[in-house]
C-alpha cells in the first residue's frame, strides 16, 4: 500500500465539485484515510509550494491557493502516487487525457482543480503539512 496527498483546490470548492471529484477518486479504488476543509494563508500556500519559488507563476499560484477553502486528503492504494496522477491528468487541462479530473473540470494550467504528490517521499512531507498523526485514521 502507498499513500499520496491530494488537495481539492479552491476552484474545485467554488464550483461545488468536491463530491464529484471524491466520487471519481473512490471509484478508482483509493481509500480516503484523512480529509479536512481548510484555508491556506498566503504564507502557508507559499511554504507548501516553496519548490516553485523561482518559477514565474509562483505569485499567481500562492494567490490562487489562498483565495478560498480547499480540501486536503491523504489517499491510500497500491501504486497511489502514479495512479493518482494518471487519474487527474496533465497539469494543463488542454493536454490532459479524456476522462481525467482535470480534463473534465479544470479551466486552466493554474486553476486545475487538484493537487497530487509527485513521489511517495513528497507525499509523506505534504501529509505532515496538513495532518497530525491523530487525524490519520484508516478504520475499515
Ligand atoms: P502538477 O500540479 O501537475 O504536479 P506542477 O508541480 O508543475 O504541476 O505545478 C504545481 C502547480 O502550479 C500546478 O498544479 C498549477 O496549479 C500551477 N502551475 C504550474 N504551471 C503553471 C503555469 N505555467 N501557469 C500557472 N500556474 C501553473
What descriptors fit this protein?
single chain, 140 residues, 4 strands, globular, 7 helices
Residue windows where pLDDT falls under 50 for at least 5 positions: none
- What ligand molecules are bound, each kind once? adenosine-5'-diphosphate
Average predicted confidence as pLDDT: 97
CATH class: Alpha Beta
Proportion of residues in extended strands: 15-25%
SS-based class = alpha+beta
Rg calc: 14 Å
CATH superfamily: Nucleoside diphosphate kinase-like domain
CATH second-level architecture: 2-Layer Sandwich
Structural domain count: 1
In total, how many beta strands?
4
Number of helices: 7
**Distance from first to last alpha carbon:** 14 Å
Shape: globular
Describe the strand arrangement of the main beta sheet, using strand numbers: 2-3-1-4
Keywords: ATP-binding, Cytoplasm, Kinase, Magnesium, Metal-binding, Nucleotide metabolism, Nucleotide-binding, Phosphoprotein, Transferase
Protein name: Nucleoside diphosphate kinase
Cofactor: Mg(2+)
Enzyme class: transferase
Structural summary, described in words:
The protein has 140 residues and is an alpha+beta fold. Strands 2-3-1-4 form a four-stranded antiparallel β-sheet. The chain is built from seven helices and four strands. It has a single domain, classed as Alpha-Beta Plaits (2-Layer Sandwich). The protein is globular. Adenosine-5'-diphosphate (ADP) binds next to α4.
Helix/strand layout:
Blueprint: E1 2-8, H1 10-14, H2 18-27, E2 31-35, H3 42-48, H4 58-65, E3 71-77, H5 80-88, H6 101-105, E4 114-116, H7 120-130
Antiparallel strand pairs: 1-3, 1-4, 2-3
Helix pairs in contact: 3-4
The structure holds adenosine-5'-diphosphate.
Amino acid at each position: 500500500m502507498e499513500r499520496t496527498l491530494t488537495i481539492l483546490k479552491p476552484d474545485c470548492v467554488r464550483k461545488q465539485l468536491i463530491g464529484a471529484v471524491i466520487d471519481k477518486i473512490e471509484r478508482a479504488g483509493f481509500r480516503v484515510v484523512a480529509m479536512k476543509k481548510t484555508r491556506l494563508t498566503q504564507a502557508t500556500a507559499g511554504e507548501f509550494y516553496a519548490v516553485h519559488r523561482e518559477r514565474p507563476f509562483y505569485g499567481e499560484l500562492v494567490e490562487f491557493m489562498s483565495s478560498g477553502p480547499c480540501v486536503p486528503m491523504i489517499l491510500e492504494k497500491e501504486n497511489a502516487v502514479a495512479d493518482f496522477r494518471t487519474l487527474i491528468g496533465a497539469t494543463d487541462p488542454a493536454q490532459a487525457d479524456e476522462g481525467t479530473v482535470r480534463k473534465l473540470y479544470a479551466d486552466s494550467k493554474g486553476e486545475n482543480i487538484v493537487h497530487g504528490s509527485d513521489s511517495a517521499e513528497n507525499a509523506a512531507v505534504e501529509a505532515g503539512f496538513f495532518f497530525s498523526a491523530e487525524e490519520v485514521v484508516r478504520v475499515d
